[in-house]
Amino acid sequence: MKKEKNPVLMTAWIVLFCLSVTFPALAQEKKYEALLGEWDVQTEDGQFTFVFIFSMENDTLAGMFQGSSGEVEMEDLSYEDNKLTFTVNVDAGGQSMAIDFSATIEGDTLEGMLSLQYGEANITGNKRK
Prior knowledge:
It contains 1 helix and 9 strands. By secondary structure, the protein is of the alpha+beta class. It has one domain (34-127): Lipocalin (Beta Barrel). It has a 9-stranded antiparallel β-sheet. A hairpin with a 2-residue loop joins strand 3 (60-67) and strand 4. The protein is elongated.
């Protein structure tokens, strides 16, 4: 005798599978919600300005850096417990220069530091509305 499949049970399994795939992605986006979007950032003296752009790509946090030397992808990007860190490699007169950024995010504000081979500078920023 052939055993028939229960359509209600099959539907329940399909729904559970879909939820198990969707919820982790939503949880990741929720984790980064305060960070996602565009940020206007400047050095403490206002001499240098940047734009940080954070987004989700394939359930992974991604970032772009825009400055006077152009736009580059952020490397080693990390955001945990409101602490942000990343590195960018920019063109400095034909030579590549690494700049390390670290900051704390509180609401729509950012405070931190950039470090490069010539020294360090404090940075502040605001999230665009």
